[in-house]
Structure to design on (228 residues):
């Protein structure tokens, strides 16, 4: 069985209690913390910036003191200055939409040079062809299974075919690249998404919309452990 990761998205947390929500979801078993950055330009919504990431960074630790990776998903345009700012703010992984950067290869290099893992994010209608030319600089690929901008939307099924295709590409490359999926992930569809080839699952409303975060994360893990 592959190693699966669950990355709760703070987008659906109670923003008035962000620090507590972060701690609660870590205690409930989060593997990564997904941090959705929206600029009201690339997407029609506005969330939080590097200062909030920096403030949360010191609280993103497990009971044993080990850090929980902060997975920054940039839905911003332009990308480079904010990517650098989030690296400085303590992000561990930073992904961006290739259509938001004029020089994708340069942006990937910038993120890695800043000491972070670099990722590309593909919208539901975005082609993935260019990945071939930069795959040596990519640490994770994030497939959007909703149109970016809002939590609580329904999973778009064509994402499954894109995940299958990316899984083949990644395996053929022989590289250690995480394949992450974002949007509409629930207990009842996570197994299908894993079967398509994903190993990392972002979930916002499914987790934060339930009063018992551990219950949902455990149920997702049980689905993942179930096998085909
Ligand atoms: C949407 C964000 C997602 C969002 C997912 O633009 O990138 O990370 O939080 O939310 P759910 O899991 O509710 O679809
Ligand atoms: Zn996201």
């Amino acid at each position: 069985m592959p190693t699966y990761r669950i990355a709760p998205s703070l987008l659906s947390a109670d923003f008035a209690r962000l620090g507590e929500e972060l701690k609660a979801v870590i205690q409930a078993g989060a593997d990564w913390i997904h941090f959705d950055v929206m600029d009201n330009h690339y997407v029609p919504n506005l969330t939080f910036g590097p200062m909030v990431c920096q403030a949360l960074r010191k609280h993103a630790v497990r009971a044993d003191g080990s850090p929980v990776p902060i997975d920054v998903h940039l839905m911003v345009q332009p990308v480079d200055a904010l990517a650098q700012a989030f690296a400085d703010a303590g992000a561990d992984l930073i992904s961006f939409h290739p259509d938001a950067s004029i020089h994708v290869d340069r942006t990937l290099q910038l993120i890695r040079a800043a000491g972070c893992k670099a990722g590309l994010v593909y919208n539901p209608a975005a082609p993935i062809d260019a990945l071939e030319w930069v795959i040596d600089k990519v640490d994770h690929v994030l497939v959007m299974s909703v149109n970016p901008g809002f939590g609580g939307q329904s999973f778009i099924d064509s994402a499954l075919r894109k995940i299958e295709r990316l899984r083949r590409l990644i395996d053929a490359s022989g590289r250690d690249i995480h394949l992450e999926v974002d949007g509409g992930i629930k207990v009842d569809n996570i197994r299908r998404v894993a079967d398509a080839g994903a190993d990392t699952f972002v979930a916002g409303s499914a987790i934060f919309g339930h009063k018992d975060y551990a219950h949902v994360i455990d149920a997702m893990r049980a689905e993942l452990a179930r096998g085909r």
Summary: The CA atoms of residues 6 and 30 lie 6 Å apart. The mean pLDDT is 98. The pocket of zinc ion (ligand 2) is lined by residues 9, 34, 36, 73, 182, 202 (CB under 6 Å).
